[in-house]
Amino acid sequence: MNIVKPNYSRPLDFKQGQVDMAHGSGGRAMAQLIAELFITGFDNAYLAQGNDGALLPIITERLVMSCDGHVVSPLFFAGGDIGCLSVHGTINDVAMMGARPLYLTASFILEEGFPLADLKRIVLSMATAARLAGVPIITGDTKVVERGKGDGVFITTTGVGVAREGITLSGDLAQPGDIILLSGTIGDHGMAVLSQRENLTFDAPIMSDTAALHGLVAAMLDSEVRLRVLRDPTRGGLATTLNEIAKQSGVGMMLHESAIAVNQPVEAACEFLGLDPLYVANEGKLVAICAPEDAGRLLEVMRAHPLAREAAIIGEITEDAHGFVQMTTKLGGRRIVDWLAGEQLPRIC
Amino acid sequence: MKYVDEFRGGELGMNIAANIAFEATAASGYRLMEFCGGHTHALSRYGIADLLPASVRMIHGPGCPVCVLPIGRVDQAIRLAREHGVILCTYADTMRVPCSDNLTLMRAKSGGADVRMIYSTQDALKIACDNPNRQVVFFAIGFETTTPPTAVAVKQAAAEGLKNFSVLCNHVLTPAAMHAILSVKGGVALDGFVGPAHVSTVIGSKPYEVFADDYGKPVVIAGFEPLDVMQAILMLIRQINEGRATVENEFTRAVTREGNLKAQALVEEVFELREVFEWRGLGSLPHSALKLRPAFAEFDAELKFSIDYVAVRDHKACECAAILRGEKRPQECKIFGTVCTPDNPIGSCMVSSEGACAAHYSYGRFRDAA
Ligand code: SF4
To answer: What ipTM was reported for this prediction?
Structure first.
């Protein structure tokens, strides 16, 4: 006699299995994927309730929200993958507002045929990143698109946080005389991804710097220096971020090339591909602009944090009707550090 | 990469700058043309103008591959992609060169033409192998540096019997352009050349001897690092002060008199001189460019698809022609920095970072803003 086990369904095959259209259909297959992968992986009380949304406790402080889509290719690269990147990216965007990130949401667009093994690896990487950061992923969504209509997996995350009392950071607050600090080397993430894609090999692979910066930001805010702007120079690199700030604040900048550190393999890879590290993405660095009297103290605080050991003062804000970001070169000449023109670099975040 | 930093260092640069300032005393001044876009870029990127005395004036030359490409040549590429349905493979810079009908390869691509950006000729071959049912055309541009890789690709395609690969050949020759600059009537007055870096690794320093011997212009071949360029400027000043005109080589770490004979033989095997080729700015110059030899005719996209070259006039406000001849500076163009910017280039000199207009806009325009 055939015995039908109650409530039994065959577990997902995370070794050989693939995403198929049913995983996004809203039916049993989707429920199974959510239960066995996402709820188990992200493991928190909000998700475990299994509702359409998460019911949050009352929050009385000013809220900060930020949202970030991730389409990096390749999905796995030295130093990280699209999973931890999607957690770090949004945590950092919330942190740059001077806020403490509280919750994340995640939305997945999966391509039909994507290996479940890779999906599991990505979800576990997200789960680990979220746990280490202390910011749970409390609700999410999954959609599946037909083969050829996606690129494996795209992940969009949203972050909610609360701004520290009395702190307002904004790109339009930089004033002439203010000092610009940078938390470390530039170009690591972008070149980790690009060198992998272009099959450039070095003695040691270039590692992405992807990291959650809210701890560093908290330490900086604790020091009570007069911070005006925080921003993480991701897509478009340091040059783009500084131009955005200059434009928002209606000021100019004078940078010093010799103060901006670039790891040697990154420099070599940039040289090879004809790129300028100033325009290459970072995922674990921040730019801080503060009042001139506080710059020394801020630098000390930053250097005391493990994610900003190589922090440096890289320039100052100037009065400039043209809003030029300029730089004194290592040779002693002067140049503009302009907006990036023309084609985007390939997808790296 | 210690190697690179050695050639960008501050102290050595200051020393060379001090020597230049000390020695550049001739009342008539020094009008030096850096032939290559690579040098134009280095001068701007490192702010070298700030380290030179007023007596030394650098004049940008025509050695920027996408800058000298006339509109009609890009039109040909677009026609191939749109009317003949080929997969057109091109280097990144070429994507944004403005051409007829307000088009660029990039816009043609968003309009549905199959244009693919590649990093090397090998990428183009691979695309041809992967798409046996499509015709694949490599849009080959550049001076003598980029010619050998194209030759390799053509030979490889021939050896593999690839029937769906061809080349739209626009390879041009450096010495022909230097001749043209020096022989334009009423053209720019020059006292010497900073000679090409990468080009010279292929062709050697010998082809420049005629400019020293017959035209009396000193030539100093220089690498693309900022200190290379500064050292070359100093060497030119010394020649001029001493009344000498010879070919000197600052870039001895890579350039010999004879050049790379293997690469030259390869190019010789695959290419022959075109009767005449139209350059942007320099006009139609005899024997100034290459085409595939008859033995490789089946890989010549112009023959394969019977697309004729049709000359097209530049935008009427654009001064690229005069800039490429060294007669004008970017800021003398009426639409520089307003209508024409790197985000919306009107002329080819605003496209590549090696173009004079793009280099001045991206790195040096603060000098105009006083
Ligand atoms: S600014 Fe633009 S239009 Fe004017 S010469 Fe340069 S490229 Fe041509």
So the answer is: 0.77
